Inverse folding.
């Protein structure tokens, strides 16, 4: 749980933004530090170099460039213990004067100012960490090296190496922690919006998202969302109201018209009149059927029925339907076969689920030819979903029409001679959607196969008991 929350925060946009800001500001800080370091190093080196340069000029000036003169000058300088280091080496590598032992090979490389640390044949007193200087050739071929103690340069390097570690680690650590906190607080608000949206989608249209009163951009977004939800709820109530008005204002007179037609039909009259009355009653029934289906669809699509979902014994429901349709099929010379696993339980609206399978079975009976076979199969698939397949061996539906026939009022030309409104499969689709279930149509060579897959999350405890039989 905690691990999931941390992973969510680390993957969040807020955390990435905070991390990017940290990296940019970290780079900025390090760049400034590097500039300060370079400036400080250049100043120290400049001071050391100019002091060495003036010492070289002084010695060369005092000695007139002769070997003995240089040796005397070095001895003179060493008496002052000025902190400078000298080495006068003959071309053969012999040390002629000075307080520094340095191999000739190293000396030959020092034709420009360099900072040297002990090693490679260079020995320095313990309190001297580094020296900086350069070598010059005297007129008689001797090499004179003068260097100055450069402990400040070593200290500067040490200080900056340490500072970079602390600074880099600190910035990164603070950035990660800050990013995590920002992400967590942003995610808490987003989570609240997600939870509320899911409840609203599940049918609770009165649900609103809580504002925390801080007046931040989340609060402003939530206030706008809540206003939008108020508006949607009002519109839905209007639609509901209009539907109720239609149902009341149009269905009632139609029902009364139907009653009058029935009464007139009871009265003895001309046979052609009776036929006309029968047709009129049939038409009114169709209109009333369309009204009922439309109202039902509108009601299902609000998702408000989800709040009444209960465990449904799907095996019993399908067994009962199979028994009923065996009788209906027999009257039409069609065989209904069923293979239904005995332990299927889902969570949903029993009445709507029944209506869904009735619509599919009615189609199978209506559109398959006499002598045809309709099969009902139901079971748990390996993923734990409940699969229900109803197949017939009638004319089927061309593959390119499979999606279209799920829309309202779509009827194929080939079936126009059968009674129907073209709303049956639209209702099936709406009921499947309400139960988060997938509906798919396929050919049955010949015929049609309708597969309804009720996902595992809609199965009720009990479904996993030794479910015999699977579909597919
Ligand atoms: N089992 C089937 N075999 C062949 N065609 C089918 C089958 N089921 C549906 N159809 C085709 O799909 C169309 C839409 O079916 P749907 O159930 O939505 O409407 P309907 O059966 O025409 O009318 P009703 O609203 O009374 O159910 C049908 O008109 C028919 O052309
Ligand atoms: Mg139908």
């Amino acid at each position: 749980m905690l691990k999931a929350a941390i992973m969510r925060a680390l993957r969040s946009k807020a955390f990435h933004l905070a991390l990017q800001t940290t990296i940019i500001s970290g780079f900025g800080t390090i760049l400034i530090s590097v500039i300060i370091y370079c400036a400080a190093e250049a100043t120290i080196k400049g001071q050391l170099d100019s002091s060495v340069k003036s010492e070289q000029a002084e010695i060369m000036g005092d000695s007139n460039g002769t070997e003995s003169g240089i040796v005397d000058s070095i001895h003179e300088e060493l008496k002052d213990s000025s902190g400078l280091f000298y080495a006068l080496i003959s071309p053969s590598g012999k040390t002629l004067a000075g307080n520094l032992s340095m191999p000739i090979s190293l000396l030959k490389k020092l034709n420009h100012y360099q900072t040297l640390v002990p090693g490679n044949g260079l020995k320095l007193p313990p309190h001297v960490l580094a020296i900086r200087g350069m070598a010059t050739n005297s007129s008689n071929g001797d090499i004179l090296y003068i260097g100055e103690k450069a402990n400040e340069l070593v200290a500067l390097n040490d200080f900056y190496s340490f500072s970079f570690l602390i600074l880099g680690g600190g910035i990164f650590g603070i950035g990660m922690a800050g990013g995590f906190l920002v992400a967590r607080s942003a995610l808490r608000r987003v989570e609240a919006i997600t939870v509320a949206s899911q409840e609203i989608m599940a049918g609770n249209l009165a649900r609103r998202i809580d504002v925390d009163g801080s007046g931040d951009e989340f609060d402003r977004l939530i206030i706008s969302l809540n206003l939008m939800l108020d508006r949607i709820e009002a519109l839905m109530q209007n639609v509901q109201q209009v539907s109720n008005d239609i149902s009341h204002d149009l269905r009632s007179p139609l029902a009364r018209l139907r009653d009058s037609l029935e009464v007139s039909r009871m009265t003895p009259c001309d046979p052609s009149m009776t036929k006309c009355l029968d047709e009129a009653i049939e038409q009114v029934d169709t209109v009333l059927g369309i009204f009922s289906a439309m109202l039902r669809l509108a009601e299902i699509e609000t998702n408000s029925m989800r709040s009444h979902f209960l465990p449904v014994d799907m095996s019993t429901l399908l067994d009962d339907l199979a028994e009923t349709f065996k009788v209906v099929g027999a009257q039409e010379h069609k065989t209904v076969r069923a293979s239904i696993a005995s332990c299927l339980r889902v969570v949903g609206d029993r009445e709507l689920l029944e209506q869904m399978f009735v619509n599919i079975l009615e189609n199978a009976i209506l559109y398959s030819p006499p002598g045809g076979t309709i099969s009902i199969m139901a079971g748990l698939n390996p993923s734990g979903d409940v699969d229900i397949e109803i197949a017939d061996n009638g004319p089927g539906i061309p593959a390119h029409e499979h999606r279209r026939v799920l829309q309202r009022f779509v009827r194929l030309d080939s079936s126009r001679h059968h009674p129907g409104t073209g709303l049956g499969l639209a209702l099936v689709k709406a009921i499947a959607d309400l139960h988060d279930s997938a509906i798919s149509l396929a050919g049955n060579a010949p015929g049609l196969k309708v597969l309804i897959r009720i996902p595992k999350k809609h199965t009720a405890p009990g479904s996993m008991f030794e479910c015999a039989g699977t579909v597919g």
Observations:
- The first strand starts at residue 84 and ends at 89.
- The pocket of magnesium ion (ligand 2) is lined by residues 359, 362-363, 420, 424 (CB under 6 Å).
- The mean pLDDT is 87.
- The chain has three domains: 1-201, 217-301, 309-458.
